[in-house]
Amino acid sequence: ENCTSLSTLVFRCTPKRIEKRAFKGCLLLEHFSVLLDDISYDNWAIKLEYIGDYAFSGCIMDTHYLVLGPDLEFLGRSAFNSCFSIIEVNMQLCTKLDTIGESAFYYCFSLQKIYLPSTITTIESKAFADCSSLQQIYIPDPAVEGKTMNISLGVSTFQGCEEFTGFTNRCNITHIGDSCFDHASALAFYP
Known about the structure:
With 191 residues, the chain is an all-beta fold. The chain is 2% helix and 25% strand. The chain contains 1 helix and 15 strands. The strands form 4 sheets. Strands 6-8-10-12-14 form a 5-stranded parallel sheet, with no helix packed on it. A hairpin with a 2-residue loop joins β3 and β4. It is globular and about 45 Å long.
């Protein structure tokens, strides 16, 4: 936490867990990679099972396209809060994940697209608040999956998402928290 001079991190093995506050406030931490058999891989997050609260909060990161893998079971509160360089997050493979933690991607203002697995049932408060560039959340097609997703949205989940137009496919919103779509002026609801 708050390691202000750390700029590069190279794992010699693929990490499974990133604990609470592991890299919080490491403002200069830009580059993550995994070095296996002298080959560098930038997709360091694909094998993660657990991302703790505030794990990467405030990191600059050169990861523009974050791909999370099938073993991820926990995505903690403020895990990627204020990670300004993330443009796209793909969680489609995360079939063990059912909840996106509170403020998980809060104030990731470059974030444009999110791909969710069909297992998501809860998106907690402020998970995507102030992601002003967020346009759509891609969810699995119910015709292909054989079921429609049921999703509960917390307080201020999409507050300040000025470009957000909605979900790409039908889903059942089981709960909408207070101020969920405040200042989401591009939002469109379809019958």
